[in-house]
Amino acid sequence: MDVRSQVAMVFHLDKCIGCHTCSIACKNIWTDRKGAEYMWWNNVETKPGTGYPTKWEDQEIYKGGWEKNGDSVSLKGAGRLRGLKNIFHNPHMPVLDDYYEPWTYKYQDLFNAPEGNDQPTARPVSLVTGETIDVKSGPNWDDDLGGSPDYGRQDVNLKDLSPAEREAMFQLERMTFHYLPRICNHCLNPACVASCPSGALYKRGEDGVVLINQDRCRAWRMCVTACPYKKSYYNWNTGKSEKCVLCYPRLESGQAPACFHSCVGRIRYLGVLLYDASRIEKIAGADDKELVDRQLEIYLDPFDPEVIKAAKANGVADSTIEAAQKSPVYKFLKVWKLALPLHPEFRTLPNLFYVPALLPGMAQVADGVYDSTTQSLWGGIEQSRLPIKYLASLFSAGNTGKVVEVMKRLMAVRLHRRGETVGDLSKEEIGAAMKEVNMDGETADAIFRLTALASFDERFVIPAAHREESIEMLENTADYKGETGFGFRQRPARGL
Ligand code: SF4
Ligand code: SF4
After folding, report:
1. What are phi and psi of 180, to 5 degrees?
2. Which-ligand-closest: CA of 20?
3. Distances, alpha carbon 142 to alpha carbons 45, 80, 103, 154, 290, in Å
4. Which of 42, 185, 351 to mutate to test the pocket of ligand 1 (most atoms within 8 A of CB)?
5. pTM for this structure?
6. Predicted confidence band at 52 (pLDDT cuts at 50, 70, 90)?
7. Ligand 2 within 6 A of 22 CB?
């Protein structure tokens, strides 16, 4: 057992209101720089939709992530040697059109336009060329299903649905969607790290945050191709690649990353997981249908004396072990089994997990009366307007059973709380739902509390930083804002 610690995350999708506050918080801190205008280290997509960059999930186009190779895995399209062959033309690299051409507006025209009969307007100008442009796409162009069916119908997760099922999803009265906020997953098996010919990418030991050493990056951009989530970006101004740093200077001072801190819906949770690094290769090479269960196996019980002993032997600090025992992520993921990884079939073992959105409220008109009894309001899991097959394509490599399990647990909590607060459900109905998922009232209340009422300190359990391990915090990070972002340093040479 090779026990290490990882800062991991849960996003509760039922709570996301799609406000993009998280994206703006990140943009203001990290990517409001020349060359980084088009980057959204945190972005929020509407599903169904094609996302940012367009169709990022389609690895037939981008060849990101790993593919199964016997019991192990190999990079799908961006191995060091394979990548070097494409050095002058990489057909799998997203281009600016796949992201969008960033723009601003000529605001001065609003003030300086000569007097006339028409209102002055601020025309869009490209942040790349400075020329006036006709805006044709943006990072959230299909927000709230805007532009569907053109965009929504292109979603690659619809591939397992029959034409009739697809059609049903886009009928106006049945139309539904959910938001999908995304950041770098700080994966256990990061394809970006494995693909870099310069060894510039590394996963730091104390918390598993994946970083790019700007001094070593040689602009090969293999990481851009290799990351199946398209969360490594190329800065055309500095000639270096960049990615989400999980606000590590904030983490080191006990603060949640900016996108977590600012989240209006309070959907985000952050905490430590202890994992067994010796199992990574085997688990990454598991069969598709087993990927979710096998990935959960890699995370260890932080209360197990054997695990604690092995963690200490590996130099994991006592404060980190304590944080792992209080981790909200551990509860959602392992204790309550409510969270799933995004596209586990990419085999990077992502450390950002999602509680999928439960059914939307349903109602029907019968005999001219709007019927909103509890039964028809929520119906059964099977009547979900977001097809289970669609959710399985997102969160369980097509294993519908995994999504149904989670949905039933979420529904049991919902029915239990309805019984507690409104009291219009029979004890039998609630009891049957709870029994089916083997849940008691105390657990349902604890899930409800962490979901709906949790304080800041319950949502973010961040271990105390150790100055001796955190070389970066010895310098004043604010001095570097405006260069290439906080924390991108000549020193330290960690990971070399
Ligand atoms: S999400 Fe992409 S960039 Fe982030 S660690 Fe995983 S492979 Fe690397
Ligand atoms: S700030 Fe929170 S609620 Fe708003 S879009 Fe981001 S994740 Fe969703």
Report:
1. -135, 90
2. 2
3. 8, 35, 17, 11, 33
4. 185
5. 0.90
6. very high
7. yes
